[in-house]
Structures are given as structure tokens and as C-alpha cells.
Specification:
The protein has 368 residues and is an alpha+beta fold. The protein has a single domain, classed as Cytochrome-c3 Hydrogenase, chain B. Helices cover 44% and strands 13% of the residues. It has twelve helices and eight strands. A three-stranded antiparallel β-sheet has the order 1-2-3.
């Protein structure tokens, strides 16, 4: 009789299937996972303390590092927390521009998710297409903000610059392209037998546990639970826009993929509505000299729906020129530790990166 031996495997931090610089320590019997432990700390860290040593505006340079693929919801949460504490009004045009930025970031992040999810299933063509298509979104960001990845565009009081002339038309043309492109991804990816067999019944999240653990975003909606901050606690001009929050039953990789597929089309629709409805007017309500800018004593919290789910910023002010305390709530903290460590048990080692990509993780959010 051959007895199975328990073996320890280390996946990451340089493994191509790992989402960002992190590691998952596995104990396996045969090719079945019996225990999983997430290890972080291989990338950026200590953002919150770094912010507390800068003035309120200089801290913005740190914000994009919380999640490099999608930094804009972090900027939005921090800016809105400051505005809430100070009582600063944001011009309506700036609110539309913020929504435009957030939805472009969401669409670009979905393209990146395509690459990781498809690549971990061996469907490399789909990943190459999606990463290539993401560049069209980065082109828009470069024209709008001056940066392709780090934007620092959403500031307290509005946005850093107005929509350049002609960029609105370019955005609409790009959305037309993406809408047609979704049919290609359906044929290549979603209707692919390999992906469906790999995704259905894999990485199942129990609905009750999802609520208990604080799961958010597509993983939560893939359990049939309808939760989206844009609807449940509207901010900016989301309450003036028409869109739905999709849900799927099953809680597996397949359900999460279907949710994201519908959300991509919803983001395209939101972006079109923003371009069509955006009013004229100011894009910025100027703040005082940042080196002398003191916020009132108190605290505030603002939350935003990112592609990973709900993220939020808590700030506390003692009346000085820099934060007394900042605290970031990122979806990855739950998804990459509590959730991943439980969901991987009983799964095959070949599905580790496949499941991880379906959860949406950004390791710097954990080691913040």
C-alpha cells in the first residue's frame, strides 16, 4: 500500500500565475491542496504611515501604489473623505469627469483580468488580445491625465484638468470598438469548452460565508448577492445614470466570470451616458495652499466601488496640515487571505492561479 506524503509547495512571488508580488504556501497530498497560507510583503508597504508624514495633498502621490492596475477608486475615496470632512463642494462637471475616470479604469482592469484568467487556463491568445486592447484605455488616460498608469487626476474639490477637446469623441469611438470586441471574447473565451470545464464548480464560495467574511465585488455578486456601492450608497452622479448590477448563482469561477462579462457592457454604457450628459462648467473648486491647508478636527470615511469590490478610506484630522491617521479598506485583504486560504482547500494545485485571478487581488492593499 502506497501512503500519500504531505508536501509543501511555494507558489510565488515571481510565479507568473500569482496576482502581484505575493506568495501562497501550500500543503498538498498528491495534487490536492489540504492547507493554504498567503504570504505578502514582497512589494510596496506602509502607505498609511507615509501619508501621515505628508500634507493632505502631497499624500496623493502614494495613493496609486495601493493598487497599481486600478488606482482611481483609491484617489476617489481619499478625495471624497477630505471633501466630507471639510464640507467642500464639487462642481457637477467634475463629478461626471470622476465617473468617467472610474469607469474607464474599471474597463481597463477587466481587460487585465481577462489576461490573467485566460492565461491561467492556457488560453493565451485571449490574454494577449485583452492586454493589447487595454492599451486603448491607457491612451485615453494619457490624453486626459498625462499618465498611463498612475493618474493622480481626482483631487479634493474636483479633478486636475478638464476634458481635452476632441477626447470625448475618441472615447465614444473606443467604446464602439470594445462593444464589438466583446463578441470576439465571447467566441474565444466565454464559449470555450476548456474555460467552461475549468471554471464550473471550481473555487466555490459559500453564500453565508461570503457575507460573514466580508466578501465584496464580483465574488459576492457571483454568489447571488446584489451589492454595489454605486447603487446602495450612490456617490458623484451615479444616481443620474442608468445601469444594472448583475448577479449569478453558484459562487464558482464561472459565476464570477459571467458577472464581470455583464459588468463590462454596463461600464461601456455608463461611459457613453457620461459623455452625452456631461454639463459645461467648472471642473475644480480650488483648495488653499497645500503647505498651509488645515482640515477641521474630526474624521470621515468614503467608500467607492472598484473592479475588486468596495474600497474605502478613513481619515482623521487633528487640525494640522497633515493627517493624524489614514486607514485604507481594500477588498484584497479579505479576498487574498481569508477567502483564498479557505477556498483553495480541496482544490487541485493546477487551479491555484486560476482561482486567485477570479477573486481579484491587489497585494499592496494588504501590506499597506
Amino acid at each position: 500500500m502506497i501512503r500519500e506524503r504531505e508536501t509543501t509547495l511555494y507558489i510565488g512571488p515571481q510565479h507568473p500565475g500569482i496576482t502581484g508580488n505575493m506568495m501562497v504556501k501550500l500543503k498538498v497530498k498528491g495534487d490536492t491542496i489540504v492547507k493554504a497560507q498567503t504570504e505578502v510583503g514582497y512589494l510596496h508597504r506602509a502607505f498609511e504611515k507615509l501619508q501621515e508624514r505628508r500634507n493632505w495633498l502631497n499624500a496623493f502621490a502614494i495613493l496609486p501604489r495601493f493598487c497599481v492596475p486600478e488606482p482611481d477608486p483609491v484617489e476617489e475615496s481619499y478625495a471624497r473623505a477630505i471633501e466630507t470632512l471639510e464640507g467642500r463642494e464639487v462642481p457637477e462637471r467634475a463629478q461626471y469627469l470622476r465617473v468617467l475616470t472610474l469607469e474607464l479604469a474599471r474597463l481597463g482592469s477587466y481587460m487585465l483580468w481577462f489576461g490573467g484568467q485566460a492565461g491561467s487556463a492556457g488560453l493565451y491568445t485571449s490574454g494577449q488580445w485583452s492586454v493589447g486592447d487595454r492599451n486603448y484605455i491607457l491612451d485615453i488616460f494619457e490624453a486626459l491625465t498625462g499618465g498611463r498608469v498612475y493618474h493622480m487626476y481626482i483631487w479634493p474639490g474636483g479633478v486636475r484638468r478638464d476634458l481635452p477637446e476632441g477626447l470625448g469623441d475618441k472615447i465614444l469611438r473606443t467604446m464602439d470598438y470594445f462593444e464589438k470586441r466583446l463578441k470576439d471574447f465571447d467566441n474565444l473565451f466565454f464559449e470555450n469548452t476548456i474555460f467552461q470545464k475549468r471554471a464550473k464548480g471550481v473555487g466555490i464560495i459559500d453564500k453565508e460565508k461570503a457575507i460573514e467574511w466580508g466578501v465584496v465585488g464580483s465574488p459576492l455578486r457571483g454568489c447571488g448577492i446584489k451589492h454595489d456601492v454605486r447603487i446602495d450608497d450612490p456617490y458623484e452622479v451615479y444616481d443620474k445614470l442608468d445601469f444594472i448590477v448583475p448577479t449569478e448563482e453558484g459562487g464558482d469561477v464561472w459565476a464570477r466570470a459571467l458577472v464581470r462579462r455583464i459588468e463590462m457592457r454596463q461600464s461601456i454604457s455608463i461611459i457613453r451616458q457620461v459623455i452625452e450628459k456631461m454639463p459645461k462648467g467648472d471642473f475644480y473648486n480650488p483648495v488653499p495652499n497645500p503647505h498651509k491647508w488645515k482640515l477641521p478636527v474630526g474624521d470621515a470615511y468614503a467608500r467607492t466601488e472598484s473592479v475588486r469590490g468596495e474600497v474605502g478610506f478613513y481619515i482623521s484630522s487633528d487640525g494640522s496640515v497633515h493627517p493624524r491617521r489614514t486607514h485604507f479598506r481594500g477588498a484584497a485583504y479579505v479576498h487574498a487571505i481569508t477567502l483564498l486560504e479557505h477556498v483553495l482547500i480541496g482544490e487541485n494545485i493546477a487551479d491555484v492561479s486560476f482561482i486567485m485571478n477570479s477573486l481579484g487581488t491587489c497585494p499592496p492593499e494588504i501590506e499597506r
